[in-house]
Write a structure and sequence with these properties.
Layout: H1 2-22, E1 32-37, E2 40-44, E3 50-55, E4 61-68, H2 83-91, H3 101-110, E5 114-119, E6 124-131, H4 135-147, H5 153-170, H6 174-186, H7 200-203, H8 208-218, E7 224-230, H9 234-244, E8 268-273, E9 281-288, H10 297-308, H11 314-322, E10 328-334, E11 342-349, H12 354-371, H13 375-391, H14 396-410, H15 415-423, H16 428-438, E12 445-450, E13 460-461, E14 471-474, E15 480-485, E16 491-499, H17 512-520, H18 529-539, E17 542-547, E18 551-559, H19 563-575, H20 581-597, H21 602-614, H22 628-633, H23 636-646, E19 652-658, H24 662-673, E20 697-702, E21 708-715, H25 724-735, H26 740-747, E22 751-759, E23 766-773, H27 778-793, H28 799-815, H29 820-832, H30 843-848, H31 852-862, E24 868-873
Parallel strand pairs: 3-7, 8-12, 8-13, 15-19, 20-24
Antiparallel strand pairs: 1-2, 2-3, 4-6, 4-7, 5-6, 9-11, 9-12, 10-11, 14-15, 16-18, 16-19, 17-18, 21-23, 21-24, 22-23
């Protein structure tokens, strides 16, 4: 046998030598096709880069994503410095040998692209989503950034400052603090313990030379996956990718060995007291688990679903509905590819209830270890996963992201598809055994974030794609119905909108619409809250109701095979809600906690304060969630009276989009909704006009949160104003994430964000600019905002800026109508506001017809005259009245 092996080796070497000698070209590795089927290619190119190309013809859209195996865990000598994150800031839309930053931004706007980048522990992603006609340009842009960056010193200085502001703002953000502390609790030696953004004191040590070194070491073809999905020919797009990355030469890859994280051998706990945390505490109970490709993955994810996914899950029913110990609870099994993961139970809870919640959680964990799970629970978990996979895979960008993420993590572009299939074989006995194996008291990880010290806190602190046109039907009672067949995915989305919301409320009952909508799904004449939740969780569907500024709505999405049965429940929710008192008693604390927590968000805190000060008579001085006072006093009787007065056919538009038989669906809807009472239309003349302002107004509010948020506002327009399209384009130029405000204020390292937007409700609204900054920089920020707005009011736009902004708005319109939900909502809202259901279809034409003079006119009309300034800050003494 040894002799035969030697002969084969000699023969193989001789054959290679002959073939190589006969070729004049140097020997190279050819492209390796891993997947090669009609419409899809997964291949390793000659330089070692992986290309994933897939056709997706549902909409004229293309998504380009570039993944680089360069995340915070690979920073070697710079661990904890956030080097990957700072690098991403510089590379995305950065200067190259071919383009300046401004030229890249101009091109992005010209092609109507949505672009961004993000960094995680293990990879960085750069992406563009564009109308399909610009797919080649999108590939070129990202290839240019990745293969030919120049990293100018001034750009480094600017983004270095931006990251400092981001770190400062994140230090008081409960979500960011929670995940940072959880990583520190979970990992001892593995670099996953460091936050992706880094620690500020280490970030401040970084230099441009560190960026250059990191690029040369990590941004190589062997670390790179490009994923392109959209409305194009796959073979032709592959040639485009090859061309754009032709000079991305293979370089030596440094093998970074990550340390093995030791097993957790004893319980660990962190208690973090955050006085700035408004409302309830956050409790996380965790357990160490496995890496992504471990065989126990499927049973662990099933266990997480059964325990904490949906309103019918075990922990939700027991802890929230029955014991009323938590305001919210969810469960997840996080299994990264680079390290063993964590099974977590996340609770929102009053500080006084933390001990009781922990005890109740352990009762449920022990019950599942001893009794196991039911076949019904198991089937529900599998169905939910299948439906989630279908839902999350509808758009081009979703598919590009999924396949790219799958490959960079596992080396298999269809890992998620196989994952769904493997989940179906999980048994109830496996789930029971998994709970016994991993949910162990001796390995428990506990993180508590609380606004007040705890009584005992001695712990460490700190295939058929043919679509129909929209069919419009009006029932005898006045209800308008919109129907559209879209069989691209086996899903159906229902959205029933009613004019209402804030325009039907006053100071005393503010929040009543939102309360009524939420209670609608908590019980009907035929179904209890639990039955509704169990049914939709069991089919992987979704049902809900909510409210906004001008409307409130009911929404449902299911698989097409479940639509007919689900419609019975949806119709009952709309037509026969019972608004149970016991559900109101459970829901009220949730809403009050949400209102109280609003102060945790700078944007929410600032907007609520600004609207309340800006408006005098308008119903829009209030916000949809209501106030502590109003929500504390609302009664069931008020909810019932409000429902009877406002859920009426004359105010409603019902849109059903998806994989439906249009005729059959129309018949079902006629049968179900003809009983909706006719009612009256809304009289908007009942609102007194806003008083005309003759001078600037200035308001300031103090907050304990370190930092500040600024709003500068001008009187605006109504929803039906003919200037809406021009205002959108003007706002894109001045106030988008590539606009004047953002670029100027971020460039001066004054703010973390700065935007300008138009709030245009049914009565007069406002045009507002907002920014988040440090308290001591408020005066400078206000001055800088006014400087840019005055520039706009003077009409100092260029024809090129207008052209790019128009393209950006047109592109956003195309990209925002890919799912049934998006399309149904757009058509219903256009119809209910009186534009006609197909109004959005002509938006591209309307925007395209706008001229430079139109944009100058709308800016001069709305950005002049008295202003209203509202500031929320921790240091009001450092703010001067402008």
């Amino acid at each position: 046998m040894k002799k035969l092996f030697f002969v084969l080796c000699v023969c193989s070497f001789a054959l290679f030598t002959v073939c190589h000698a006969q070729s004049d070209a140097p020997w190279t590795v050819e492209e390796i096709r891993l997947v090669d089927k009609p419409g899809e290619i997964v291949t390793i190119l000659e330089n070692g880069m992986v290309a994933i190309i897939k056709e997706h013809h549902t909409a004229p859209v293309a998504a380009v994503r570039m993944y680089v195996r360069a995340g915070s865990i690979y920073e070697v000598d710079h661990l904890g410095a956030g080097l990957s994150h700072l690098f991403e800031h510089l590379l995305a839309c950065g200067a190259t040998e071919n383009r300046t930053e401004d030229e890249s931004r101009q091109l992005i706007e010209e092609i109507g692209a949505q672009y961004n980048a993000n960094t995680s522990k293990a990879r960085t992603c750069y992406y563009l989503t564009v109308p399909a006609e610009h797919a080649i340009t999108a590939v070129n842009l990202i290839a240019d950034w990745v293969t030919r960056p120049t990293f100018p010193q001034d750009a480094f200085d600017r983004e270095w400052g931006v990251v400092q502001r981001e770190l400062e703002m994140g230090s008081s953000d409960p979500g960011r603090v929670q995940w940072k502390l959880l990583d520190e609790l979970r990992y001892v030696v593995h670099p996953a313990k460091y936050p992706v953004i880094g620690h500020q004191v280490i970030v401040q040590e970084l230099s441009r030379e560190d960026i250059l070194d990191y690029y040369n070491r990590m941004y190589i073809p062997d670390n790179t996956v490009v994923s392109v999905v959209g409305d194009f020919d796959a073979e032709e797009m592959l040639q485009v990718v090859k061309k754009e990355y032709a000079d991305f030469q293979r370089r030596a890859k440094i093998n970074i060995v990550l340390p093995q994280e030791p097993d957790v051998s004893a319980p660990r706990k962190i208690v973090k007291v955050m006085p700035e945390l408004k409302g309830p505490a956050r409790l996380v109970i965790g357990f160490p688990t496995i890496t992504l490709q471990h065989e126990d993955l499927y049973a662990l994810d099933t266990l997480a679903n059964i325990l904490g996914e949906g309103k019918s899950c075990r922990l939700y029913r027991r802890l929230r509905d029955e014991l009323q110990l938590v305001l919210g609870v969810s469960t997840s099994s996080y299994t990264p590819a680079y390290a063993s993961g964590t099974f977590t139970i996340n609770c929102v809870v009053k500080p006084d209830n933390i001990d009781a919640v922990q005890e109740a959680v352990w009762v449920e964990l022990e019950r599942i270890k001893n009794e196991g799970v039911t076949e019904e629970e198991l089937d529900r978990a599998k169905t939910q996963l299948k439906v989630w996979h279908i839902r999350s895979n509808q758009t081009a960008e979703a598919q590009a992201g999924r396949m790219g993420e799958d490959y960079i993590s596992t080396g298999e572009a269809h890992f998620s598809d196989h994952y769904v299939g493997n989940m179906q074989s999980v048994t109830a006995e496996q789930v029971k055994e998994i709970a016994k194996r991993y949910l162990l008291a001796q390995k428990e990880l506990t993180l508590i974030m609380t606004p007040v010290p705890l009584a005992k806190s001695g712990e460490k602190q700190d295939e058929d794609t043919e679509q129909s046109d929209i069919r419009k039907v009006t029932l005898d009672n006045g209800l308008t119905i919109l129907l559209k067949r879209n069989p691209a995915a086996p899903l159906v989305n229902c959205r029933l909108y009613f004019l209402g919301g804030l325009i039907d409320e006053n100071d005393q009952n503010n929040g009543l619409t939102a309360l009524m909508a939420s209670l609608s799904v908590k019980g009907t004449e035929s179904y209890t809250n639990e039955e509704i939740a169990n049914y939709f969780d069991g089919i992987g569907g979704d049902i809900g109701a909510s409210s906004g500024n001008n409307t409130f709505y009911y929404a449902m999405e299911t698989l097409s095979e479940d639509f007919a049965d689900s419609l019975d429940i949806f119709a009952e929710v709309v037509l026969k809600p019972t608004f149970p008192q016991e559900e109101l008693d459970k829901l009220r604390p949730q809403i009050l906690a949400y209102i109280e927590q609003a102060d945790n968000s700078w944007q929410s805190l600032g907007q609520i304060y600004f609207r309340n000060q800006f408006f005098v008579n308008s119903p829009y001085k209030r916000v949809r969630t209501g106030t502590i006072d109003s929500m504390s006093s609302l009664t069931r009787e008020q909810v019932v009276e409000f429902y009877n007065a406002n859920v009426t056919a004359e105010r409603g538009i019902l849109a059903v989009f998806g994989d439906i038989d249009v005729d059959a669906t129309e018949n079902m809807l006629r049968e179900k909704f003809s009983a909706l009472p006719q009612g009256k239309s809304i009289d908007l003349t009942k609102f007194a006009a806003e008083p005309k302002q003759t001078e600037d107004r200035f308001f300031i509010k103090e907050t304990p949160k370190p930092g500040a948020v600024v709003f500068v506002g001008y009187p605006g327009m109504t929803l039906n104003d003919k200037d809406q399209d021009a205002m959108e384009v003007m706002s894109q130029i001045v106030g988008s994430n590539t606009g004047w405000l953002h670029e100027t204020l971020r460039g001066r390292q004054l703010v973390y964000y700065a935007w300008l937007f138009s709030f245009s409700p049914l009565t007069e609204g406002f045009v507002g600019a907002t920014a988040q900054c440090e308290a001591e920089k408020v005066d400078e920020v206000i001055a800088a905002i006014r400087e840019q707005i005055d520039k706009a009011a003077r009409g100092e736009f260029t024809a090129e800026e207008v052209a790019r902004a128009k393209s950006k708005r047109i592109g956003a319109e195309i990209l925002g109508k890919q799912t049934n939900s998006d399309a149904a909502a757009s058509a219903a809202l256009d119809e209910i506001y009186g534009f006609g259901y197909d109004y959005s279809q002509s938006q591209a034409q309307r925007i395209g017809a706008l001229t430079l003079a139109d944009i100058q006119a709308v800016a001069a009309k709305y950005l002049t005259g008295p202003i209203t300034v509202a500031v929320v800050t921790s240091q009001p003494d450092k703010v001067s009245k402008p």
